[in-house]
Structure formats: C-alpha cells, structure tokens
Write a structure and sequence with these properties.
Elements (H helix, E strand, L loop, with lengths): L22 H58 L26 H8 L8 E3 L14 E8 L5 H9 L5 E3 L2 E11 L3 H18 L2 E7 L5 H15 L5 E6 L3 E2 L1 H9 L11 E3 L1 E2 L27 E2 L3 E5 H11 L8 H12 L4 E2 L3 E2 L15 H4 L4 E2 L4 H11 L11 E4 L4 E4 L2
Parallel strand pairs: 2-4, 2-6, 4-5, 8-12, 13-14
Antiparallel strand pairs: 1-5, 3-4, 6-11, 7-14, 8-11, 9-10, 15-16
Protein name: N-acetyllactosaminide beta-1,3-N-acetylglucosaminyltransferase 3.3 isoform X1
Organism: Danio rerio (Zebrafish)
C-alpha cells in the first residue's frame, strides 16, 4: 500500500544521486516518510478508538440488559409481593433459654415460648368496610368469622356458595370474613399471598396478617381478629366463630339468636359444645401437648370446642379486653375459656352445636341423612363436596322428615330427634 515511499523517481530502486535529486529531494523524501508515519499513527489510533467504542457499546448493551432484567424482576415483585415493610416484628424473649429443660422441648414449643409476648403483626389484607364502617356495624346481625389456612381455597369457595353466603335473612344481615396468616416461605409464600390477594379482590372477605399460620398460632389469630373487630366492626350483634370445615345452618342460627330474650348482642352469650373438667395434655406425641413450661396448672376452665361456637358482640369485646392481661395459651378454644373466667362469665352448652360430630347409628340410618342436619346449628369435620351437597339437600322444599320423631325445644331453638 505504501511501497512508493521506498521507490525511486522512476519507480525502480535507485540511489538519490542516480535520480538526480539533490538536497531538496532528500527533504521531500523525509517529509513523505513523516506524513506516512503520521497517517499510520492515525489509522492505528482510529482502530483503537473504534475497538473501544465497540467495547463500550457492548458494555452499555450488557448494562442495559441487566437493567432490563432488574426492572423486570422488580415488576414481577410488585405483582406478587403483598407484604408491607416488616419493621414491627417483635424480638424473641431470650430469658426462656434459662428455663429448666428448655433445650429438650420440641421446636414448635420453643418458638411459642420465645415469641409468646408478640401480639402485633403487620396486616397484609384488610376489608375495612366489611361492616359498613365502625359507626354502622350494628347493622351486621351475624358476622361469620371463619378460621382458614392460605391453601384452603376450595373450602372457602364452597362456603361462599353455601351456608356462609352473605345475605339478608328474616330482615337481618349475615356477613362473612375469613381470618388467615401466611404459609411457606420465599417464593411459595409470595405465590400464596398473590392468590389470596386475587381472591380478596374478588370477594372482599379476607383478613390476613404476616405470621405463620399454624396450629399453635390459632390463639394469636383470634386476638388479631378481635383487635380488628374493635376498630372496624365494634357493634356487630352476634358472631359465629368456626373452622372452614364445619357445616353450619345459618338460617337456624338467625332463628335462635332472634329468639334470645332481652339480648340484642349487648349482653353476654357464649354457647357451643361445652368441655369441662379436663386439663393440659402432657404426652409429647400429642398435637395438643402442653408442657409445664407453658402452663403449670393441671386444669382448664370450662370452654366450648373451637370447631364452632356462637357469641354476642358484648362477649367478643369482653374477651378482647381480657386478652390484654391473660397470658397466651396456644390452644385457642381453651384460651377463650380462660378469658371468660377472667371476666367472671361462663360458656353454656347448646345441643345443636356438634363439634365432635353427629352420633348416628351406622347401618341403621344414613349418617348423611339431611333430616339430621336440617335442624342443627353446626357440625364439625365436613369435606367441601359434602358441604355443597348437604346445603342443597336441606334447602330442598320437597324434603320430608318424620316430624313425629322430633320435638321442639324453645331454649335451644332446634329440633331434637328422640331416641
């Protein structure tokens, strides 16, 4: 490309004298060489600059790609994350490590003791206007408070379409709320929270807090609900508090509650399947195991089985007030009894509340005969599909039951089959 720089004036290699070029020719040659070197330097610099630009462009493209990925991830996070900033989590009470034999206790017992004092957790999902605002909450005659777990979507859907459907019945309103914690962790927790958020957007019936939804946290769930009620629904007349696997006849409940003499929810009522003369289970393998480190006493106060019970708004507020001074016990129905005892009031028994199930003679009659369930208040342990079927059957206007086998008991508000 630059061969002419070393060539003579005729295009062949000769000495400067042969070409007849003098001192001026030699200066011209040096000038050409310098120009050529300058040109080469420029080309090299251009190549270096171009290469750097390409490198910078690749770097910019790489950074843009990373930024895009980050933004995409942030977008996904905003779509799936429903948790508020967790700045109010309580710290463990390390003094429990000094308790005798603390190290030998099961992990869930240790966790309960370490965080027993924690009664406030961030709220993830709320329905602030469920009762029409605190000032209008007396319009809610029966508030269905249903304890559920995040994954129990199928149960909640069935209840919404059956006995827990919000409706106006006999001139009074029935409203529904599910109370839930969180489950799993990491991505699983986010996905489940996303499901609950979508579910709540559609149904407006979920209260969720950021605590682990476990058996030993059922009491915490109850207290968090009562705190919510105190703010959002303080004047609700009556409540059904129950699990999401019960079959309830809310029409019978309305009839029973409207039949209460001189009690519009402003007086004490707490009724269900009463349990008494029992105490903590000390067997470690039991689901209900309560060691002496949690409760030293060997006797529980009378209480109603936690599968489901009815109470007045007055009693719900009383239990909440007592909970400020009654130390937590993980068995939630027992804890309710402890709060009642603290307040100097008692639970009562109702024949129509069957948290231990109906005792129907197997082989003699069908244990799912709708005539049994049409006259009760609630029965515990029902599968979702059976709730759906049973609700339809007891609403059947053509259902015929042997009325002569029933007798009306005014104080119970249900029919009782004679044996």
């Amino acid at each position: 490309m630059f061969a002419w720089i070393s060539s003579g004036c005729s295009g062949f290699p000769h000495s400067l004298k042969t070409c007849g070029i003098g001192e001026m020719g030699e200066k011209m040659r040096k000038k050409n060489v310098e120009s050529a070197l300058l040109f080469l330097t420029g080309v090299v610099c251009l190549l270096i600059i171009t290469n750097k630009n390409d490198s910078k462009e690749d770097d910019v493209n790489l950074k843009s790609k990373k930024t895009e990925e980050i933004l995409h991830n942030q977008e996904d996070f905003s779509r799936t994350e429903t948790l508020p900033p967790s700045t109010s989590y309580c710290q463990p009470n390390m003094s429990f490590y000094k308790l005798p034999e603390f190290s030998t206790l099961p992990d869930h017992i240790k966790d309960f003791l370490l965080y027993r004092h924690c009664k406030s957790f961030p709220m993830i999902l709320d329905v602030p206007d469920k009762c029409g605002g605190a000032q209008n909450s007396a319009d809610v005659f029966l508030l269905l408070v249903i304890k559920s777990s995040p994954e129990n979507y199928d149960r909640r859907e069935v209840l919404r379409k059956t006995w827990a459907e919000e409706r106006l019945h006999k001139g009074v309103w029935i409203r529904r709320i599910f109370i839930i914690g969180t489950s799993s962790s990491g991505l699983g927790k986010r996905r489940m929270n996303r499901l609950l958020k979508l579910e709540n957007n559609e149904n407006k019936d979920i209260l969720q807090w950021d605590f682990n939804d476990s058996f030993f946290n059922l009491t915490l769930k109850q207290i968090l609900f009562l705190e919510w009620m105190d703010r959002r629904c303080p004047h609700a007349r009556f409540l059904l508090n129950g699990d999401d696997d019960i079959f309830a006849n809310t029409f019978n409940m309305i009839e029973y509650l409207q039949g209460q003499e001189d009690n519009d929810g402003s007086r004490h009522l707490f009724t269900g399947n009463i349990i008494q003369n029992v105490g903590p289970i000390r067997k470690r393998s039991s689901k209900y195991y309560i060691p002496v480190q949690i409760q030293e006493s060997d006797i529980y106060p009378p209480y109603c089985g936690g599968g489901g019970f009815l109470l007045s708004g007055f009693t719900a507020r009383t239990i909440y007030n007592m909970s400020h001074s009654v130390i937590l016990l993980p068995i939630d129905d027992v804890y309710m009894g402890m709060c009642l005892k603290k307040a100097g009031i008692k639970p009562t028994s109702h024949f129509g509340v069957r948290t231990a199930g109906l005792r129907v003679p197997v082989g003699i009659v069908d244990k799912f005969d709708p005539c049994y369930y049409r006259e009760i208040l609630l029965v515990h342990r029902f599968l979702p599909h059976m709730i759906f079927v049973m609700w339809d059957e007891i609403q059947n206007p053509n259902l015929r039951c042997a009325k002569n086998n029933f007798k009306r008991t005014k104080e119970q508000g249900v029919f009782q089959r004679e044996i």
